[in-house]
Amino acid sequence: MIKQRKRRYSDGDYDHKVWPSGNPVLRVAMSIEPCVDAHDGQEKSLRFVFHGAFKPMLSHVFGQLRDRLFNDYSMTEDMMPAIINGKCYRSLMIRIERPDFHRLSLSEWPLIIKSMMERRFRCEVTYFTDYEKFLNT
Fold it and tell me: CA–CA separation, 18 vs 111, rounded Å?
């Protein structure tokens, strides 16, 4: 008689898997900068800025939130010409078109994004409310 191994998860039920406890592999810094579009004074857009994150991570998180909390997003990479004070010189900016503040307030957006990233990827996300502090990380 061959002993069969017990399945840890049922078939197709891997999305709730949580990373094992331990040190995070990646440290990510995040900040938010609200701005008003010039072509429409009523319609706001949000701009999230990340240090230490990768494009596939952010496209996965914001792809899940698309059509639920906002209409569309665009991702751009901003590189500084030189490293200043040994700090991070590469940042990813995500611009969100037509965010729905009725479903989720502006103060709750970073909490949702942080929890989604930490749950899905093995990283530690730090949110900075002050943009100047974020630039010095």
Answer: 18
Over residues 65-87, mean pLDDT: 82
Distance, in Å, from the CA atom of 66 to the CA atom of 81, rounded to the nearest integer, reads: 32
Q: Determine phi and psi for 117, rounding to 5 degrees.
A: -70, -45
The distance in angstroms from the start CA to the end CA of the chain is 59
User: Looking at the domain that runs over 26-135, which CATH code has it been given?
Assistant: 3.30.70
Closest CA to 37 of 29, 28, 47, 27: 47
The whole-angstrom separation of Cα 110 and Cα 44 is 17
| Structure confidence at residue 41 (pLDDT) | 46
Q: What are the two backbone dihedrals, phi and then psi, of residue 63, each rounded to the nearest 5 degrees? A: -70, -35
The pLDDT tens digits for 88-129 are: 678 899 999 888 888 888 889 999 999 999 888 888 999 999
Q: How many residues does the chain have?
A: 137
Domain ranges of the chain: 26-135
Query: Residue 125: its pLDDT value, please?
Result: 93
CB 31 within 8 A of CB 114: no
Task: Check if the beta carbon of residue 75 is closer than 8 Å to that of residue 55.
Answer: yes
pLDDT given for residue 35 in this prediction: 67
